[in-house]
Specification:
Blueprint (H helix, E strand, L loop, with lengths): L41 E6 L3 E5 L9 E5 L4 E5 L6 E2 L3 E6 L22 E8 L11 E2 L4 E5 L5 H8 L4 H7 E2 L15 E3 L26 E2 L15 E7 L25 H20 L3 H10 L7 E4 L8 E6 L4 E7 L15 E3 L9 E2 L2 E2 L1 E3 L17 H4 L12 E4 L12 H4 E4 L15 H11 L6
Parallel strand pairs: 9-11
Antiparallel strand pairs: 1-4, 1-21, 2-3, 2-10, 4-9, 5-8, 6-7, 6-13, 7-12, 7-15, 13-16, 14-15, 17-20, 18-19, 21-22
C-alpha cells in the first residue's frame, strides 16, 4: 500500500508611494473601506524577513556579527468584501514545494502532483473563540493578525541573550527597534508559538512569552511533521478552506475511539483513520476501469485528505504532501526573490475536478465537473533581492539595509489587487506593527544602519 505519509531592519525609507502607514505599536492595521471586486479573504500584509541585530563580541575574543531576529514575524488576513466572512474550517498552509528548490517529481496520472492539487507540507487551523466557542468572523473592511509571539520582543530578546537593557546598550545594535505586540487586540489576534502536543521537546509549555490571552493556532499535520510556523524567505503559503467539517469542535470519542463531531482532517482523527484513507484511496487510484473507478469514488466512506509520499526522480529525497484540490485555495502568496525561483506550480490556467464539501467529485451527468483554477503561479514577491543566510551575517561588509520591509497588498485605487501573480499582488512597504519614535513616526532603520553598520564594527567605549 502507498504511504500516506521562521536595529529592525524593517524600517524603511520613504518610498511613500509604495509604502503603507505604520501603526502605533500594538494597534491593528488600519481598517480599510475601499471598494473592491475581490470576493474572498486576502493576505493584506506579510512581515517575514525579521529584524537585524549586531553583537559586539570583541571583548570575548570572537568575531562580532549580525543576526536575524525572526520571532516578530506576522501576517494580516483582511476582508475586502461587503459581507462578514467566518474563519470556520479555514487554515493557513505552506506548500511542500519550496520555490527556490528544483524538484523532479515522479510522473503519475496526468503528470506530477503539482499539476493536479495543492500539495500541503504543513497546516495550522484557526481555533474557535475561547469564550463563545464559535468560529471567529472577520467583518467587512476588518482584519485579523497571525503572529509568531504576541509579546514585547525587546524583553524576549534580552531574556534570550541573558542580558539587561543597560548591558545590551553596550553590546548590541538594532534590538532597540524590536516591536511590542503584547497589546494586540485579543479578539483579532492568533499566535503560532504554541501549537504542538508536548512531545520530543517541540515546545515548552511554560514558555513565558506565549501570550496566554491570545488564542493559539492549532497544528493539522501527522506525526512529527511541522505545521505552518510563519512565513520565511522562500515559501509558498495559502489560506485554505477545509472541505469536510469544523476541526475545532469538541473532541468527543465514540465507542471506536473516533471523533465524529470534529473534522476528519484534524490530527486526532488522522492518527486513527490513516490506514482507512490510504486503503480506500489506493483502491480508487489503482482501478483501471473508468466506470468502476467512478462508482468507488461515489461510494467511498472516507473522502478526505490523502497523505501521500511523492518520489523525486533525481534521487534527492521525496516529499510528503497532503492533497488539497486547487478549488479550495482561498488566497495565496509565493515569497522568493525572482532571481532564485527554480520551481513553478501551475504555469497557466488549468482545468481541475470540482469537489463538494465532503470531498466527493461533483458530477455533471456521468462526467466529473471541471473548473478553471482562478490563479496560477506566474511570479514571486520578496522584500530582498536574494535569500540571506548565516554566511552573509558574518561577513564584515554585510549591509543590513538590504534586509528590511514587509510585503503589502497592492491597491489599484478602487480596491485590492487579486491577479494571477504574487509579483503583481504585493509590493514592498513599511511593516504596520513597527515601533515608532518619540514623534510617533516609524523608526527609520535605513538611516539607523547607515550610521551604525559602521559604528558597530568599532568596539563600544
Amino acid at each position: 500500500m502507498k504511504k500516506i505519509n521562521y536595529m529592525l531592519i524593517f524600517a524603511l525609507v520613504a518610498l511613500s508611494s509604495l509604502f503603507t502607514a505604520c501603526q502605533r505599536n500594538g494597534d491593528m492595521p488600519d481598517r480599510t473601506d475601499a471598494n473592491s471586486t475581490v470576493d474572498h479573504l486576502i493576505f493584506k500584509e506579510v512581515f517575514y524577513i525579521g529584524y537585524c541585530t549586531y553583537r559586539d563580541l570583541s571583548s570575548m575574543g570572537y568575531k562580532s556579527q549580525y543576526s536575524r531576529y525572526k520571532d516578530a514575524s506576522y501576517l494580516v488576513i483582511y476582508n475586502p468584501t461587503h459581507k462578514p466572512i467566518s474563519l470556520e474550517n479555514m487554515a493557513i498552509a505552506y506548500h511542500v514545494v519550496d520555490p527556490s528548490v528544483q524538484y523532479s517529481f515522479q510522473k503519475d496520472g496526468n503528470g506530477d502532483f503539482t499539476k493536479r492539487y495543492y500539495g500541503i507540507g504543513g497546516m495550522s487551523y484557526f481555533p474557535n473563540d475561547p469564550v463563545t466557542q464559535k468560529p471567529h468572523v472577520i467583518e467587512p473592511g476588518d482584519s485579523v493578525i497571525v503572529v509568531k509571539y504576541a509579546c514585547d520582543h525587546k524583553k524576549k530578546f534580552l531574556d534570550e541573550n541573558e542580558t539587561t537593557e543597560e548591558e545590551a546598550k553596550k553590546k548590541f545594535y538594532g534590538w532597540e527597534a524590536l516591536p511590542d505586540y503584547s497589546n494586540l487586540p485579543r479578539n483579532k489576534t492568533f499566535e503560532l508559538c504554541y501549537q504542538h502536543e508536548l512531545k520530543k521537546g517541540m515546545y515548552n509549555p511554560e514558555d513565558k512569552f506565549d501570550n496566554k490571552d491570545i488564542p493559539n493556532m492549532r497544528d493539522l499535520v501527522l506525526w512529527d511533521e511541522r505545521p505552518f510556523e510563519g512565513p520565511s524567505q522562500s515559501i509558498r503559503i495559502a489560506l485554505v478552506k477545509l472541505p469536510d467539517g469544523d476541526a475545532s469542535k469538541p473532541h468527543e470519542k465514540d465507542k471506536n475511539g473516533f471523533y465524529p463531531d470534529e473534522s476528519p482532517r484534524s490530527r486526532y482523527n488522522w492518527y486513527h483513520l490513516y490506514e482507512l484513507y490510504a486503503t480506500e484511496q489506493d483502491q480508487i487510484n489503482d482501478e483501471k476501469d473508468p466506470l468502476k473507478k467512478r462508482e468507488l469514488e461515489k461510494n467511498r466512506k472516507y473522502p478526505t485528505a490523502y497523505y501521500q509520499e511523492i518520489s523525486n526522480t533525481t534521487g534527492m529525497g521525496g516529499v510528503n504532501a497532503i492533497e488539497l484540490n486547487y478549488n479550495w485555495v482561498v488566497d495565496f502568496l509565493t515569497i522568493c526573490p525572482s532571481t532564485e525561483k527554480k520551481m513553478d506550480l501551475l504555469t497557466g490556467p488549468s482545468s481541475v475536478t470540482v469537489y463538494d464539501a465532503t470531498g466527493h467529485a461533483v458530477m455533471e451527468g456521468t462526467e466529473e465537473k471541471k473548473e478553471k483554477v482562478w490563479w496560477y503561479d506566474r511570479g514571486t514577491a520578496s522584500v530582498c533581492k536574494r535569500i540571506f543566510g548565516i554566511n552573509d551575517f558574518s561577513n564584515p561588509s554585510f549591509d543590513p539595509s538590504q534586509l528590511q520591509g514587509a510585503l503589502i497588498r497592492r491597491s489599484n485605487g478602487k480596491g485590492f489587487v487579486a491577479e494571477m501573480s504574487s509579483a503583481l499582488n504585493f509590493t514592498k512597504g513599511v511593516p504596520s506593527l513597527c515601533r515608532r519614535d518619540s514623534k510617533d513616526k516609524p523608526l527609520d532603520m535605513t538611516a539607523y544602519w547607515k550610521v551604525n553598520s559602521i559604528n558597530a564594527r568599532t568596539k563600544k567605549k
